[in-house]
Amino acid sequence: MAFTFAAFAYLLALILACVLLFFAIYQIIAVDELKTDYKNPIEQCNSLNPLVLPEYGILIFYNLLFLFAGDVITLAFNLPMIAYDVYRYANRPVISWIRNL
Fold first, then answer.
1. Per-residue pLDDT reduced to its tens digit, 65-77
2. Band of the pLDDT at 94, cuts 50, 70, 90?
3. Which residue, 38, 66, 68, 70, shows the most beta carbons closer than 10 Å to its own?
């Protein structure tokens, strides 16, 4: 039994899923800071918005690994998530005028 590229892809996806879990926990803690008024919402968004693109990049990266490994079933399970993330990013509210206040 050899260590194949598919096994490497799953191992890396597991590690990267832990990173994504850390991002989710950080965002939950950040929302709790909003509830306790430690930060205002604009400062909170400025600290959370830079995490969005790395989250999407990690998801697309390990799905590309699954594609290169030939694991089409796992890729098919993740395609709706990628489509939803692309839709959510394309339709995000952009409020640039707030920074001028």
1. 999 999 899 999 9
2. confident
3. 66
